[in-house]
Amino acid sequence: MVPSAFPEAKFGAVSSFERFSSVGDERRGKSSIRAGVLPVQQWTRTTSALLDLFFVCLNATAALAIRSVSLPLLGKTWNKTPFELTRLFPAKPYLAFLLLYAALIVLCCAFQDLYRRLDNSYGTEESWNVFKAVAMATVLLAVFIYLSGHKDISRLWVGCSAVLNVVALIAWRQVLRRVVTQRVEHGIGARNAVIIGAGKMGQALAQYLERNKQLGYLFKGFLDQNHNGDARILGKIEDLARIARAHFIDDVFVTIPSAREVVKNVALIARMNHLSVKVLPEFYDGLGWNVPMERLGDFPVRVLHWEPIPALGLFFKRTIDVVVATLGLVLAAPLYALISAAVKLDSPGPVFYRHGRVGRKGRQFCCIKFRTMVADADALKEHLRHLNQREGPFFKISDDPRVTRIGKFLRQYSLDEIPQLWNVLTGDMSLVGPRPHPVDDYERYSLEHLRRLDVKPGVTGLWQISARKDPSFERSIHLDSRYIDNWNLMLDFKILLKTIPAVLRGEGQ
Length: 509
Description:
about 500 residues; alpha/beta; Rossmann fold; 3 domains; 7-stranded mixed beta sheet; 19 helices; 12 strands; about 50% helix; about 10% strand
């Protein structure tokens, strides 16, 4: 039951959808594509540590090579043969101390809290911590070498390794910071955030999020009962469910901790809508007990609820997308040439049809297909809309006069969609997912239709294999929602396998 601070009547038309979308939430648990048990942050920490280990080993090998070149200049000789020099470490003591050095650097980096999410704007504090970690590890290594009595370990090797490690460990973190910032600015891999409360704390947090894109957040606006003069106010607090769906919100930051009942109600509504809630900070009648405290840069936040992500599953899904799309594009090259020639000979116009589609979280991209219609088909669409045989914001008519002769054949066997493998390779689409709709159809969506944009669109999906000729748009939405709620890799494999006979039967239109 929704508490009185958020009466159900205030949600208006979306209330039934919100109840529908949350049905069976506890039962579905780990199976939803938006839920999981493996936090992304844990994988980030592991990857960072492995990168550090890689560069420490690489730098130690480079330092050994530098020493071998420097010895003749210093009037000394290198007592190893060229064959031995090509091996990773020609002397066992070097290998042993390298392993020790690598372990010390990782431990010191962890002690300096370097395996956390990126925060500081320019990374200056992070770079200083890297320097301190390498320096601390190098001093400890020198002490171990001295106490072990191995006087044959070169001090030049230790010094060069330390310098190279400082440069390399700082450099890859700075590169990562730039890459993450650029991706977030383009909406790739970003988490959309809304702030409850547009007061002083809320304004400061919004400014911090906008200035520090490497944190991974895109600030969408405020929810507040007052401060109506701010153009970034999206609505009132009771509009949270509607705003979250309309703006594809992932995280809710609450900056009015004194309003305890409001915070508890926000947490309840957020749970129903799979949103993460972070409060700056307090305890709320037990809601905040035994929950972790995090830092968002300079801001302490208490996590009341976290909607985890199936990082491992999504990683394998993306890996499969890349491998299959690459193989498909290579193996289908002869078919590409044949279809291209047929399209060109059949009717005037380009071989490929490029048109705007709407993908995950409303992000637009250019979808590529073989052209199956006359060149000016888009201009004729509005004149034919009254003949639409689909229900809802989805345009389709039988015996479309715009379709060419070769286009009808390509559509029947879905050959026109082969170039979408390029969209899969670039990350705009996946092999399996909801059908990508044109921008003009997207503009006719109702609020509840936006749920299908929680994931990447796919080349094939449940709709393509089970209801391709069903005129109901609501049926399509139901299938998309079922896919999102029950996603796992096995479901993707089943859909891909069932797509093959559907294509061979020539069910396309």
